[in-house]
Amino acid sequence: MSKIRCIVIEDEPLAVQFLAEYIVQVPFLELQATFKNALLAIEFLRDHATDLIFLDIHLPQLKGMDFLKTLMNPPAVIITTAYHQYAVQGFDLNVTDYLLKPFAFERFLVAVNKVKTAQSEKLKTNDRVEEKDFIFLNVQKKKVKILFSEIVYIESQREYIKINTIKQQYLTKMSTQEIERLLPVQLFKRIHRSFIISIPKIESYTAEMVEVNGISIPIGREYRGIIENL
């Protein structure tokens, strides 16, 4: 497996130094660059692909969480901060881990191993997805074949998800995160904590909602801008 390319966005020189020292000790990590503010990182990301961002929250000019909301198809993100109160917001934005300063190398290693595991699973899933245009899901004690081309949107219902297709609805016991990993990224996009939509089924949109197949789906605040960038 190739190395995980990463960048550090951190305005404290000592914190940057510690992170760089941690990164160089991990064989599967490759440090591409460090940035003292998020605006400089945005310029870098326009021309370079990266796999992982170590992100501080309290940054000059553009705060870490606000920066994260601007990213279309963001890479893995590990928050590094001295402030615990932003943890819930961070996980709402699908960050991989949340490291409270000061953190030991062992805790750092736990976080980056999560990224490595997730990337390995994603590669395996993408290989499987590219070979087919359907998925089998457990529905009422049997496996049901559902074509990707027929899915309109998917809605979270606590421990279940409801898959709305052009023909009918299916209810299966799994999380939104689990089904999202099984869907081809070029066809589906998450626009809300509770909703995943089919990109080809989009008929119209505003800053707050998307219409798919005649159904209005809300866009979550942290997901605004995603549709514009498709």
From TrEMBL:
Name under which the protein is recorded: LytR/AlgR family response regulator transcription factor
Domain HTH LytTR-type, chain residue ranges per copy: 135-204
Organismal lineage: Bacteria, Pseudomonadati, Bacteroidota, Cytophagia, Cytophagales
InterPro entries: 2C-system_Tx_regulators (IPR051271), CheY-like_superfamily (IPR011006), LytTR_DNA-bd_dom (IPR007492), Sig_transdc_resp-reg_receiver (IPR001789)
Pfam assignment, any one: Response_reg
SUPFAM superfamilies with a match to the protein in the record: CheY-like (SSF52172)
Response regulatory domain sequence ranges: 5-116
Keywords on record: Phosphoprotein
Origin superkingdom: Bacteria
Residues where 4-aspartylphosphate is found: 56
Species for this entry: Adhaeribacter terreus
